[in-house]
TrEMBL record:
PROSITE patterns: MIP, PROKAR_LIPOPROTEIN. It comes from Pseudolabrys taiwanensis. This is MIP family channel protein. Belongs to the MIP/aquaporin (TC 1.A.8) family. Keywords: Cell membrane, Membrane, Transmembrane, Transmembrane helix, Transport. It comes from the Bacteria. Its main location: membrane. The chain crosses the membrane at residues 7-27, 33-54, 81-103, 132-150, 162-186, 206-228.
Length: 237
C-alpha cells in the first residue's frame, strides 16, 4: 500500500496548497494577497515538495494524466494505473474537503469557490470551449514531455536528483500562461476534487468536468506514444 498512500498524500497536498493559494491568498487584499504568479508557484512548489517527499516511493505522479502517459509509454502496468488513479482522485477529494472546512470558518463568509476549473461566460478570461480544450490538451502534452523526458534514467537531471525541480517549474509556467483560460487543470484529479466537494455552490464546474478529463488524457497519451515509439526515448547503452 506504499505507492497508493504516497499518491493519495501527494494529490491531497497539491489540491490543498495549489487551490488553497488561489481561494485563500488569491482572494485576499493588501499585503496578504497574491496574483497569478503566486498561485502558479504554489502549484509548482507543491509538486517540487512532493517529488522529493514521495517521489522515491511512487514516482510522485499525483495526476491521472501523468499516470496514463507513463502507462502508454510502457513504464507501468494497467493494474498499477488503476490503483494510482483511484488513490489520486481520493486524495484530491480529501484535499478539497479540508480546504472547504477551512474556508467555512471565514467570519465574513465566502462564495463557495474551491479553485474549480472552468471556461466560458463569467469564468476568468471567458475563453470558449475550443480555447479551453486546446490549452488543456497541449499543456498536458508538454508537461508529459518534460516528465517522461526528465525521468529517463540516462537524463543528467534524473541522475543528479533534479527531475522534481524541472517538473515543478514546468507546472509553474503552465499556470502562468493558462490560469486565465481554464484555471489550469492538466490533471483530472485536481479538477474532480474541487468540482465534487463544491458541487452544491458551483454545479457548472461538475458539468464541465468532462473537458478536464478528456483533454489532459489526450495530451498525455500522445506524449506517451512518442516515448513508447522511441521518438523521444533515449536508449541506454
Amino acid at each position: 500500500m506504499q505507492k497508493p498512500l504516497a499518491e493519495f498524500i501527494g494529490t491531497f497536498t497539491l489540491v490543498l496548497f495549489g487551490c488553497g493559494a488561489a481561494v485563500i491568498a488569491g482572494m485576499g487584499k493588501g499585503p496578504t494577497a497574491i496574483d497569478v504568479l503566486g498561485i502558479a508557484f504554489a502549484f509548482g512548489l507543491a509538486i517540487v515538495a512532493m517529488a522529493y517527499g514521495i517521489g522515491p516511493v511512487s514516482g510522485c505522479h499525483v495526476n491521472p494524466a501523468v499516470s496514463f502517459g507513463v502507462f502508454v509509454a510502457g513504464r507501468m502496468s494497467f493494474g498499477e494505473l488503476i490503483v494510482y488513479v483511484i488513490a489520486q482522485v481520493l486524495g484530491a477529494i480529501a484535499g478539497a474537503a479540508v480546504l472547504y472546512l477551512i474556508l467555512s470558518g471565514k467570519a465574513s463568509g465566502w462564495n463557495g469557490g474551491l479553485g474549480q476549473n472552468g471556461w466560458g461566460a463569467g469564468y476568468l478570461g471567458e475563453y470558449n470551449t475550443t480555447s479551453a480544450f486546446v490549452f488543456e490538451a497541449v499543456a498536458t502534452f508538454l508537461f508529459l514531455v518534460c516528465i517522461l523526458g526528465v525521468t529517463q534514467k540516462s537524463n543528467p537531471l534524473h541522475i543528479k536528483g533534479l527531475a522534481g525541480l524541472a517538473i515543478g517549474l514546468t507546472l509553474t509556467v503552465i499556470h502562468i500562461v493558462g490560469i486565465n483560460v481554464t484555471g489550469v487543470s492538466v490533471n483530472p484529479a485536481r479538477s474532480l476534487g474541487p468540482a465534487i466537494i463544491g458541487a452544491a455552490t458551483n454545479p457548472t464546474a461538475l458539468a464541465q468536468i468532462w473537458l478536464f478529463i478528456v483533454a489532459p488524457l489526450i495530451g498525455a497519451g500522445v506524449a506517451g506514444l512518442l516515448f513508447a515509439s522511441g521518438a523521444l526515448e533515449v536508449k541506454e547503452s
